[in-house]
Amino acid sequence: EAAAQPAARTRLPLGAAVRDDPLEKEADYRDAIIRHCSQIVGEGGLKWYDLRPSRERFVYDRPDRQLAFATANGMTLRGHTLVWYGAMPDWTKSISSAAEAEREMVGHIEQVMGRYRGRIKSWDVVNEAIPDEPASRSDIRPSIWQQRLGESHIALALRTAARVDPQAQLVINEYDIEFVGPRFRRKREAFLRLLRDLKLRNVPLHAVGLQGHLRAEIPIDKEGLSAFIAECQTMGLQVLVTELDVVDEKLPGPPEVRDILAASRVYDFLDAVRAGSPIDSILTWGITDRYTWVPLYFKRADGLENRPLPLDRDYRPKPMLRVIEHFL
Ligand code: XIL
């Protein structure tokens, strides 16, 4: 007899962001993750403010538990995220010189990636480097790293990551790349400019992460997106979908109808990505409508629940799940 497998589940490269509280306390939640996912990522835990309440102290409890859960269930854990303007603890505001910024950023990557070397195999090294409305193609979001070190902090972060864990998949993760409209086309162009520049200078970078926080009210720019993806493919970059969900703040209709419309947005998005290159993995930003960041930022005005994710609040599959599975 072969050793018993962890609970039967799909081997699709499907994943989800996990929340620590239900992961610990709710069997239904755990079961859903185990049934549907072959990879997870912490919704929090590896972010600076979670990991480093003070400059000296690194608190690894949450990511350690996430990794233990993943390993026990035959899944992998993705690392999110090392260099980001968001989720910064207050003490980082006092980083005042280029030398100090370099020391802090490089030291952080060494500590955190070093601890999980060989165990976390894919990292969002840089998250959300492009501003919402880039003033030019070379506009970079004014994070503390950008303010103190300039754009070279991105190459430095990637080179450091490659040195600390040469086997790890290094990812730049971005949002608002997929929509119709001049604002989003400009963001796509600025992102491409950065990627080209990194590749041209032989900076280690393996994949582009498309967050995929789709907006129900904005159509997907299928041509623009697949052309962008094809360019990434040409540069030798893999493509991951890292944070898929549908922000349904303004989506009208009864729940069953909204679920179909949301699923069709996901279809348009994944179809356009696949037109440009094979999709290596898809992670959603949560698994169930019961636990999602969307109502915190995009609460519906009509008081009805947001339904951004592949399972409803009672863990029943929605049309979105079928659509995602179709692309894997
Ligand atoms: C969000 C989490 O889901 C929230 O729980 C947290 O309060 C704020 O961050 N893009 C990202 C993620 O890269 O890290 C964000 O996660 C959602 C948007």
What's the topology here?
Elements: E1 14-18, H1 20-25, H2 27-36, E2 39-42, H3 48-51, H4 61-72, E3 76-84, H5 98-115, E4 120-127, H6 144-149, H7 152-164, E5 169-174, H8 182-200, E6 207-210, E7 213-215, H9 222-234, E8 238-247, H10 255-276, E9 281-284, H11 294-297, H12 319-326
Parallel strand pairs: 1-2, 1-9, 2-3, 3-4, 4-5, 5-6, 6-8, 7-8, 8-9
Helix pairs in contact: 5-7, 8-9, 9-10, 10-12
The chain binds (3S,4R)-3-hydroxy-2-oxopiperidin-4-yl beta-D-xylopyranoside.
(3S,4R)-3-hydroxy-2-oxopiperidin-4-yl beta-D-xylopyranoside (XIL) is lined by residues 43-44, 127, 211, 243, 293.
Question: How would you characterize the overall build of this protein?
Answer:
The structure is a single chain. Helix 5 (98-115) runs parallel beside helix 7 and helix 8 runs parallel beside helix 9 (222-234). The model is unreliable at 1-9 (pLDDT under 50). This protein has a single domain, classed as TIM Barrel (Alpha-Beta Barrel), CATH 3.20.20. It contains 12 helices and 9 strands. The radius of gyration is 19 Å and the shape is globular. The relative contact order is 0.12. The protein has an 8-stranded parallel barrel, surrounded by 5 helices. Strand 7, helix 9 (222-234) and strand 8 form a beta-alpha-beta unit. It has helices spanning 20-25, 27-36, 48-51, 61-72, 98-115, 144-149, 152-164, 182-200, 222-234, 255-276, 294-297, 319-326, and strands spanning 14-18, 39-42, 76-84, 120-127, 169-174, 207-210, 213-215, 238-247, 281-284. The two termini are 30 Å apart. 41% of the residues lie in helices and 16% in strands. By secondary structure, the protein is of the alpha/beta class. The structure holds (3S,4R)-3-hydroxy-2-oxopiperidin-4-yl beta-D-xylopyranoside. (3S,4R)-3-hydroxy-2-oxopiperidin-4-yl beta-D-xylopyranoside binds next to loops.
